[in-house]
Design goal:
This is SLC13 family permease. Its main location: membrane. It is found in: Membrane. It is a multi-pass membrane protein. About 1% of the residues have low confidence. By secondary structure, the chain is of the alpha+beta class. The strands form two sheets. A five-stranded antiparallel sheet has the order 3-2-4-1-5, covered by helices on one side. A five-stranded antiparallel sheet has the order 8-7-9-6-10. Among the domains are: 191 residues, no CATH class; 185 residues, Alpha-Beta Plaits, CATH 3.30.70.1450. The two termini are 31 Å apart. Helix 6 packs antiparallel against helix 7.
Length: 605
Amino acid sequence: MTGEIIFVLALLAITIVVFITDLVRMDLVAIGVMIVLALSGVITPAQAVAGFGEPVVVMIAGLFIVGEGLASTGVAASVGRWILRVGGRSETQLLLVILPVVAILSAFMSSTGAVALLIPVVLSMARASGFNASRILMPLAFAALIGGMLTLIGTPPNIIVTDALHSAGLDSFGFFAFTPLGVAVLVVGSLYLILVARHLLPKKETHDVQAGFSLHSLFERYAVEDQLFRLLVPDDSPLVGKTVIEAGLRSEYETTVFASRHRGGSLSTLDAVLANTRVRGGDTLYVYGRRADVERLGSEQSIALSALSHEEHRRVQKFFGAMEVLVTPQSPLEGRTLKELRFRERFQASVVGVRRQNETLQTAYQTTPLAVGDTLLISASWDRLRSLDGGHSFVALTRPLEMQEAPLHAEKARHATIIILSMILVMTTGWLDNLTTILVAAILMIASGCLNITEAYRSLNGRSLVLIAGMIPLALAMQTTGAAELIVQETLTRFGDLPPVWICAGVFVVTSLLSQFISNTATTVLMAPITLAIAQGLGLNPMPFMMAIAIAASTAFATPIASPVNTLIVTPGNYRFIDFVKVGVPLQLLAMSVTLMMLPRLFPF
């Protein structure tokens, strides 16, 4: 054993210990590894940073953008609302619906993102139905992790092992090569999570991280909860051709028009109504106002009035909402009326309610000077409300839950759906290589407006990318110094006579164990070349061994630090460390059993 091998193995051991103890952030550890390797001379400085140019790093960066496109357009959130409608009657029924759905979501986007989207859905259903969210959240998280086993892009370990096979000039995994085994683990795992696991979790008071004001609560606070109406403007109405200011809808009728939809348009084509917006024949106007005032408007202006259905109400609130703001000292609003301020023109938002000293001003607040301490309920599109949040004219006091959940680019949901389906089709058929396909999909997400370039950069999980790029040089150092070969030779000498399935089991156990304490991505980067060399040294097909470490890396069930998905549910589920051990270890054993039974049939040794 040479000095270089001892050095690299010692660096590997120190890295694992620091990962496990969590003394330093993992991405900083990875950067430290790159620096140490460059200074040691074991590899060159260029090799130490070459990980940032690896195709696997670029592919994962592209997938972050694609996943963010699905989230920002509301495609993923729409799935969550469907779950609420279909599975909200009981714990068992909810689990039967939510487990496969979150798994499928995680097969095509970040499992962390999928769980983050569904946590408020689960908590909302728990509040409404009375069941205990702590018995749902952990199965939800584990199903998301299993979902990563379903496709090539489901989780970084799948991409890493595929790239390792490709780089070695061997047959690699296709897009759905993981699916048969992933589905089997999902079926068995779901049965366990539904029939056994949730009963291992004690009923606890959950911490509702989403607790706060809903739009309904805000509307009640300002006494406008029953004041949302729809008006259909006929072609012969006196309003046709007038702006909302010229028509005097606010000054004459105390009615605020906030959105409109032209004849034949869908609810996804709602337009914000500003001061200079002209009313057209056939328009549907969405307004706030007291019923008596709105009925008088309808009668005098020959407009048909109707209340919104629950579904239409929900669809409108997907694009438009309200926010409570506070008038502060030295604010330009102080001492001036809304009319003097030309509020709608200035802020492109409508005031639908004013409160002063904890009392709602019922009438004439358009002509009442605003005072410091007044709170206003302003209505606009979610995008506009976000842009007003943080301005200098007033302070956002209450942001409703719907504002947090509203997609930024809901009107582009169809584009995002077409892009993700096209990406899957191209990757499945092999028309283009995976790297090119993912990069094209990411660029199309930006070019089509599913997210802007700032949001795309923000979606890149820097920690994950740096971690992968930083661990690749360590794997390279193990190869160039002979450390990896030494491990392979020792393994072959000691275990080479065992049946292949037992060696596969050993690889699975080591990978799964490491993944409970360090990133499954880092674990896979280290294990992939070693496992590949072991399989080749035994003269066996490397594909079942590489599939085993990919599946094992996703079995991060036994600790709250095993995956960001697990960490995400600790607080809202009020879980302890032992809860993950009780539920996670049996699930790991089930996943390993299913894998070892199916691997020889799917990928003969």
